[in-house]
Structure prediction request, 464 residues.
Amino acid sequence: MTHDHIAALRAEVRGPVLLPGEDGWDDERSGFNTAVRHRPDAVVGARGADDVRAAVAFARARGLPVAVLGTGHGPSVAADHGVLITTRRMTALSVDPVTRTARLGAGVRMERVAAEAAPHGLAPLGGSAPFAGAVGYLLGGGLPVLGRTYGWGADRIRAIDVVTPDATARHITAESDPDLFWALRGARDNFGVVTGVECELIPLARLFGGGLFFDGGDPARARELLTAWQRWTETVPEEMNTSVAMVRLPDAPGLPEPVRGRYVVHIRIATPLEAAEGERLVAPLRALGPRLIDTLADLPWTRAGSIHGDPPTPMAWNGDTALLDGLAEAEAGAIVELGGPGAPVPSIVEIRLMGGALSRPGPVPSAVGHRSARYILTVLSRLGNGDAQAVAAAHRALIDALAPRTTGRFLTFMGFGENAAPDRVRTAYEPEDLARLARLKARFDPRDTFRLNHHIEPATGGTG
Ligand SMILES: Cc1cc2nc3c(=O)[nH]c(=O)nc-3n(C[C@H](O)[C@H](O)[C@H](O)COP(=O)(O)OP(=O)(O)OC[C@H]3O[C@@H](n4cnc5c(N)ncnc54)[C@H](O)[C@@H]3O)c2cc1C
Prediction:
């Protein structure tokens, strides 16, 4: 890349084109997970699809790989060369109450979609962290807070604007480009940079939800609560969405006094059912004993982010995940021993109940796999100085202990680095879907320009 090449690119795009060390460089290549430092040859801060197209053409002409950064909630590998395209400036958003759809640019966060849709009594199928990028979330599958009731976010995508690896901007639907439309929903930037999506909204203004916080500092009590929650999940209808987290909360002034600095078992509830019915369904959980806090209430959908209470501030962490076909007492014991209050490294373990609409195929098939899973476990730990190996070992011990019940892994919860190596990425897909993705990768990205990601390796044989 010569100075002239960069000057030509700068003349073509509206957004900034930054080289290492230039003003704004560090901000532009950083996202929510500060443990991953991208060190590309150049960053293009795209303002629209034309900028993305120019950046992909620029990289392609020089044989450079392309990586994408949205809000940085789910990096897979660090982009240590090539061209990094950031999407944060692509914030166009419109809601159509008649067709019950939203059109959103690649840089839009789900909380904005929720705010724009709410006056029409509509809601996007958002995940636990409304401040995460909506497009990265949806293309990765999009596991919503209300997933058991309404299914996967990716299944609600109606149209996609994408710049494919041949540097062509396309507007695609299930009808116009069935292969590409199938592959992007589940394998994301292996097939290009999505500049915008049109997705369905659901008629929903409120829900009943919140959290029940129990003291979980004693491992035996934590195990008892986990087992009781699991048994309860076998009794609930698919309108009930729930997860449990085991975590030591920080001793921070912003937190309510009863939970501050304490190890808690936090049971989360989210249901579109009327509050009275929600109250009735959670009665067995309330009977498990005294709660440190009980926040269950009728909520506007725009406050659904308070249910999990994911932290909004950037931090360094890594994590791992397993989709499970069941959760018996033996697994509950292993989870508490390896990820609970006495775990070898401080960890947050979260288990979500799957099933219901998540287990059914969407209206238009996609690459989002492992729909038969009954639970999904995720383990996360913050990274300090030099503890990455200890964290990886502790997470691996927990995930390995669950191997007999593991059906696969969910792409966007699998962490970064070794956790996102190709052998692990393969476990996110059904075998026949993986084979199809590899053939499509060879067809749409024969130069493997999009390889700094959860990488699908192109098939070496035929394509298509
Ligand atoms: C606190 C927290 C809570 C979460 N909760 C949920 C949840 O409830 N449900 C759920 O499903 N997920 C959840 N996630 C995962 C999250 O949805 C993914 O990490 C998602 O990728 C976030 O989008 P992003 O813009 O931050 O992606 P980034 O980290 O910026 O990018 C990650 C990858 O996404 C792909 N990508 C991003 N933008 C584009 C694009 N425009 N075109 C093509 N590919 C692109 C690329 O492969 C890129 O490498 C959570 C993550 C966090 C940190």
